[in-house]
Amino acid sequence: MVVNVFVVSPDTRSERRIDPHITVEQLKGKLELITGIPAANQVITLLASETDPRVIAELNDDSKMLGFYGLADWQVLKVIDTNPAASLTGQLSDVSQVEKFELSDAEYASRRDTVLAYKKNHKMGRFADKNATPEPEPSTQNVNIPVGSRCEVESTEPGLSKRGTVRFVGPTKFSKGVWVGVEYDEPLGKNDGSVQGERYFSCRPNYGVFVKPEKVKVGDYPVEDLGMDDLDEEI
């Protein structure tokens, strides 16, 4: 039989499973490893619970078993250090004693392994070349995919033909370059013609998709019935 209790000290808090048949002396040996407080410096108080700080007992007899004090589930073993200077109690959580690593603005600016150096090297943010020629908007002149034409989209799934109608050709807000919006004949898509709140064309949910032009073949592709409606009825 074991009891679930909370162990708290100036530097620690943990949930532990403890055998009520061990003695207070044995408990102190275990708590030294948990709290860092030497067994000889421990004063252990048994509290009712974390929300009820009533003192149930002082575990002041090292020879007594824990069951003698009525140890029960979810009580609290509060461990006090009678000689904190010897065990450095409290210093583990005192960040004021931690030596801080600091750099002056000049030292930081001189380093080559910083975000600032990266932005300088790649002319980003305030280091961008204000006189640089902006990148031209993507053009559809070299994309011979008329809107409204029938098409077939290259699929990574063997034997699956994804056919549909071209509904959009041009630049988008969700990614750079020219994209082709296709309304599939069957619900094999990912959207309804809109992405991230921006609408490019309209179709039924899961019938729309956006692909790169090289994935699209335009031609006389008749509508194929893949039997998706029948599959839906069988589910």
From TrEMBL:
Main location class: cytoplasm
GO biological process, one term: tubulin complex assembly
PROSITE patterns: CAP_GLY_1, CAP_GLY_2
Keywords recorded for this protein, A-Z: Chaperone, Cytoplasm
Record domain CAP-Gly: where: 170-212
Keyword Chaperone: yes
Coiled coil residues, start to end: none
A Pfam family per the record: CAP_GLY
CDD domains per the UniProt record, alphabetical: Ubl_TBCB (cd01789)
Gene Ontology MF, one: microtubule plus-end binding
Subcellular location: Cytoplasm
Family: Belongs to the TBCB family.
Protein name as catalogued: CAP-Gly domain-containing protein
